[in-house]
Q: What sequence folds into this?
């Protein structure tokens, strides 16, 4: 049951609002562990409910440390703009009863509104690697405060040639952090 996973009432309400009656297997396996602050390696394809498996703990853990001003708590890295936009929509839906800021950045569209959102302050950032690296290299996105890193679709990330970008991004993250790693198949390194 959703109410056995350790989720806060605001998130249970949001899952009920979404019409979910019980957690999917990846959600039941991931959420309690992630809520304890532990790292997770999850083997899950799109369609299994993995987005909620990482968004719900991210929202709860970001809420637990959120203060007056937004501070970048969670970075969610995903390979495509479609996935990035879907994840941001999920954060909006699951976070509807919480007071957290989140936004999404990806390439192929104007960076101006994305930069404005980041400069206003966000608790959770969803990004594709190219646009994120670009904004990091210009000092617009800073990852020094990140406590939770989600790597979504790791195998597709490799297939799409993002390995060096992902390495550069992970090197810029604080060493002391929680990591949730999801892949449909398990990459060899
Ligand atoms: P995902 O694998 O994250 O792309 O999710 C696939 C679809 O399943 C999305 O449309 C979600 O809204 C839906 N979903 C996620 N978790 C649940 C759940 N526990 N019960 C029913 N539907 C869900």
A:
């Amino acid at each position: 049951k959703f109410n056995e996973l350790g989720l806060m009432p605001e998130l249970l309400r949001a899952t009920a609002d979404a019409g979910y009656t019980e957690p999917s297997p990846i959600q039941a396996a991931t959420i309690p562990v992630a809520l304890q602050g532990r790292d997770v390696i999850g083997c899950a394809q799109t369609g299994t409910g993995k987005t909620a498996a990482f968004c719900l703990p991210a929202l709860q853990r970001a809420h637990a440390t959120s203060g007056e001003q937004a501070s970048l708590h969670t970075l969610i890295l995903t390979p495509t703009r479609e996935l990035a936009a879907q994840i941001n929509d999920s954060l909006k839906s699951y976070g509807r009863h919480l007071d957290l800021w989140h936004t999404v950045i990806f390439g192929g569209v104007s960076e101006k509104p994305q930069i404005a959102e980041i400069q206003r302050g966000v608790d959770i950032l969803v990004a594709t690697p190219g646009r994120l690296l670009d904004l990091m290299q210009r000092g617009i996105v800073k990852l020094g405060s990140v406590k939770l890193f989600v790597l979504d679709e790791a195998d597709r990330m490799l297939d799409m040639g993002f390995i060096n970008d992902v390495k550069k991004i992970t090197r810029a993250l604080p060493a002391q952090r929680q990591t949730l790693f999801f892949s449909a198949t398990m990459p060899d390194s």
